[in-house]
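Running log. JK asked me to keep both predictions on one page so they can be read side by side. First protein, sequence followed by its tokens:
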Amino acid sequence: MENTELLCEIPTSVTPRADIINGLLAQLDNEQDSDIRAEIIRKLGEYPEPQVIKKLWDLRNNLENESDDFVQYEIKLSLRKVTNHPSINIDFFLDNLEVFPSKDNNSQAPKVLIDAALIEEFLLRNQTTLNREATRVMGLVLEGKINPYIGEMGLIKIWHSMKNLKSQEYANRSIIELMSKINVGQVNLKEIDLEKYPNVNLKTAIQVEIARKYSLAGIITIADREFIASGYPFVGSPSLFLQFLGEDTSPASIERTLKNLGKAAMENEKVKLNQLLENEPQQNLFFEDNLFLFQGWKIENFEILCANNNLTSATVILCNTKTQERYTESAFKKGSVDALCTAFNEALAHLVEVKHILKSIYLANLTPGQQGAITVKAAVEYDGKEVITIHTHENILKAHFFAYVKAMIAVYAPKEYHPDIHSTKELTYFHKIGERDFRGLNFSQVNLMDSEGNLSDAKLMGCNFSKANLLGVNLNKADLTGADLSHANLSKANLTGANLTDVKLDENNLTLLDCTILTNTIMPEINIEISGESRLEKVAQLLKHIDPQSQSRILAVHSMTDSIWWDNPLGQKFWEVNEELIKRKISIQRVFILPEVPTPKHLQVIQEQLNSGIEVAWICQEKAKDVEGYRWDDTNLLISENLSVPRNSFTARRTMNRQTETGYISYQTRVVETDKSIFNALWEKSEKLSTQANIQEQLANLST
């Protein structure tokens, strides 16, 4: 311990810091005594320098060589201390790359640039398809079958991601681990000729330059599409690389696969495009390639010329695909869109009598910057009807023109018009800028679940929302008259004040009643068969959404052959809903069907409901067996009548036939009116228990 004491007393003000560190490292290499080694390692923990961190990291990776537990403890403690120091960050590691060389610099395995995002996915260990592919690629790295490289920018990205998700210490340790296994490629940005990469971003250009500088066999990246315009052929995604690699993971097979990635990527894109065209008809792509109109005519060409006199010249050429007959028309206007549409109208007049009126045409581009798709909506009036079309294009003039041309096809050749299936973005973009009219458009399969999902006050008459995900969407006061909602997910949507007249639904579309807010909603003529606990839960949900200002009332029949139903959990929940309705000043009339000899429990339930403010009547089981030709002794009924919005009224019935239960919830006018008529007849035949003065006397009569 004598040497250790002398070591600890070395004054840092006298001996330069580098000399102290070198002295400690040299002494550690030659020292065998465990106590002294532990003291040296502890002292090293006070110096967050590259040589110290590298030494401590190597010791940590070879803990099995240290027989003393105390020395192992000091290694872990000192390493944590130096990697947790505020000065140790990504700049520190980049400034000291020579201290942390990869162990595989002399590897004969193919040299491959690994995308930083792929490595990050591997480090995060998310249980996704992408992560599984990243794990397999990194497995080849760890097995020594790939000699990996990464760019400086990638290393910086990983460090910041790890720091934000975990901690600075975790990020530092991750970088040390990576630098011990992966070569860091460096290029001088000033030496990159960016004119060679006119259509790629700087990050992609840097990665290609690294691959060329270090003669790499290829690049494996998640962002493989960004390299298409780079001219570098040996690039592929993890999935594509693994797919073409197959079972043979030898270095030769890996290098051969990388050399064929460019060709494989092109073939793969063709396959995906063909599948896309087969499974999802792309009217936009088809339309833009051919520009068909109707009756065998197509737009052969159109162009815009801008002059210095503030006028724009537009020319449109129409061609008959069979006869090759052509019409060429031009127009001069101040605006490009005006000139183009006018020229098209002039050409169109050769084919049909032009009678339409262009009500509006405008864009909704909410993507910042110069690039990005432009979505345009055109609204045209013809013969007293309005036709709306939407088109998305990266060219602003084409977006306007194609939206207008499609409106012309829909107006003058409706049988030849094939509506596009519009995207979620197209729908939400327009709604954000205050546009609410989407009538007749096809939004089947849109997914608004993770978007802002606001379609309040929207005009959606005749829209196609079949198979759309409208989970939680705000459709407050939206007009969905005649819309197709078959197989749409309407769970938790807000349909307050919405109009669902004549909407198309699939059979038993229960998502319409799945926590959906239907306050004052104009409902379609639907009847849904549903029984058991599910029916009661959905009825309770509907009752909670009754608007107190809507002059609503509840008419109910309860066959109380089972007096303890109101005490079980389901009955208690339903009773709480009843109490809430009374507090909101919504009247409830209930007829109890009782056995010939009621029990005290029957009387207790009746007393409780009378005291709460419910109008109560009773009829004995025998008399209820034939009311208006219907047997009520085994039936429960609840009618929610909305006097302000009659089409929001519904009826729910449950019938027990021996041991078989059936039930429904119905918004059909005929069913609601029939059930109301039967309730009124039953109410008239029942004994009323609504006056406080004679409640006890009537209850006493019940018990006798």
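And the second, directly underneath as requested:
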Amino acid sequence: MKKAVRQRIFSSVLLVTVVSTLIFPSLPIFASSDTTAVKAESNSGAYVAKRTGVNVNAPDAGQPYPVDETHKRLPGEPAEPAEGSWGYNVETGVFTHPTVMPENEGPQPFNGSLPYLDLNQYIKNMKVEAFYPFVAGYGHSWQTSFDLDGRRYLYDYETNQYNLFDITDPLKAELITTKWIDKQAGEHQFGPFNVKYNEELDKNLAVQCYEVPRYGKITNKYTNPDEVKAIRDFEMLRGFRIYEVNGPNWTDWKILSETPLDSSAYSKDKPQQGSGCQDIPVYSGDKYLFVAGAPDDSYANTEYKTYLYSGAQLVYDISDPTKPKQLSIWSVPGQRIGEEAQYNLNPRAGNKTSWMGSRMPLFIPKTVEEGGKYGYAAMGGLGFYIVDISDPNNMKTVSHLEMPMSFAGTEGDNIDVSKVETTGMVYYSGYPLSEDCHEPYKEIYAIDVKDPLNPKIATIMPRPTPPADAPFTDYCQRRGSFGPKRTGYAEIQPGTPSQQYMPYAFYNAGIQMFDLKDPLKPTIAAYFVPKMSGELTDDEGKKYMSDQSDPVHGTFVEWDRHLIWVFSGHGMYVLSSPLLGDPVSGLPKASLQLNGEAALPLAAQPFSKDGSTLVPLRTIFEKLGYEVKWNGASKTVTGTKDGVTIQLQIGQKEATVNGVKKPMAASSVMVGGTTYIPISFIELATGSKAVWNQDDKAIVVTSI
């Protein structure tokens, strides 16, 4: 039964919320002092790590997997490096990464590895605010958040299951539902998605991606043609769906359209080609949607043994979300069949180990609608690209930067562009796929893009090192994977990112927060490294220790509330840091911005109802110069200004302007003594343009 609950830890509707001072005894402490002397004992070069303190009863670490014929070496695949050329030096306590490795599965312990999963916690300049023992995926999961009806919701999910939480109060988060996707019953898999407010439609829209399976369906495309056929024949939407979000739960959303990336597939009965839509789509709530993926089977020049496609970058016009229109496709020469000459120019050609092509869509710091010109592409072994997106009908390459080779593992996956507008620097990284540092270390490169025609590596982020009281001297010893994963998905993180600090998920090194005050001399200013294993409960109520050894595979930052969510193999942590500011409970207060003036905080908060955004009438109309009066007997509101009289009655879906009836998108309502009207009525009644800025939580009114 343990296996049955590896993705869903608890079935209870109520979360167990624990503030940092109440978390398990091992959580709020640093490694105990009695571990400082337990580094190693060298007897003929053998490493011995004693169990002391909280590690006396720590779970054993994993052992190497049996040799599997489906993962045997292929011609061209790198061989294991020579013994002694890499590994842990017992005398110096230093680990040297290999320069190149073949792909490996499972634990790969070395002389110096801990034989157990370290249960200590290490923390600097951070505080654990809460912990929730829920896990949606081990080693990987996606997160998405959005605000609706005055509440904030968080999805933590994988393709086969999701957990939906109300995190309006982050210290008392509530599990709304856990859902398993029943594919055998006809439910389509749950894909990575993004929810944004569309001002033109006054609706929240979700775009959800669907990609062919990467794992489980194909183990080696070179030796198992039946697995290749299974992927080619796999029946599913290889593209994206757009939903109208009319409630927190995905099962209640209304499908507006479904679009295959394969533009030749006009009917559901026609087999679709290509990979489908990779990872979380880039959508800001405006006109354009950016996704990654192979639009057909010709995008296939990648030698990675478990994947058939080389993903490109695509852009769509979704101003009508019921009829998305593909505008252009951008790819690197060499990605498509027939372009082998260009592909073979890459020094990785032939190694059967490098992922070639996209894993994620373009990273875009400023939208096209706001005047943004550039998108940044992480194309795996194909390198770093700057792409001109100013004309979405014709995306063009601006420049290319060849990155240092680093395989196995993913070489180019994530680009943090949150500081590029102020510093001219982006941060590029891959992530480890092997355990126990059985591959080159995945550096985080700071790339100077101030001259878009000539990007260059400026520096690298410092490699995290354990605190002095840890029972190991290098994170490679701690087991599991070590290296950067991502800074989280900028598209779904609320608020404005710090321009000085950059949190990064780091697997067995937890979350590391870099200080970029001097972009050329970055330092590590804070970290939180949780225990490697935690207590879970199966469906029968039995307790057991998690056996997954990658404690932090994801992070989600609420910049507007100064909170960092960390997703581990034994639960979700909520962190604060004095470097980011005091944590905020409840939603950030909304504001009113009139004609570019300083924002005015609102006591009454907007909310959505019947698909419309409702805003407080009195505050806005009085700022526009209207005298507002309330008649309690008739429940009528009257506003007058310069000979114009606007009148409406609570509960009615129409109002009058100088006696002329004007329809409203939704009925006016009174909540807590405040009258609310649809935001669209402001322009209809006064001529002033009014929009709701979901990201900034602001009503923006412009007099015309």
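Observation for JK regarding the second prediction: The radius of gyration is 27 Å.
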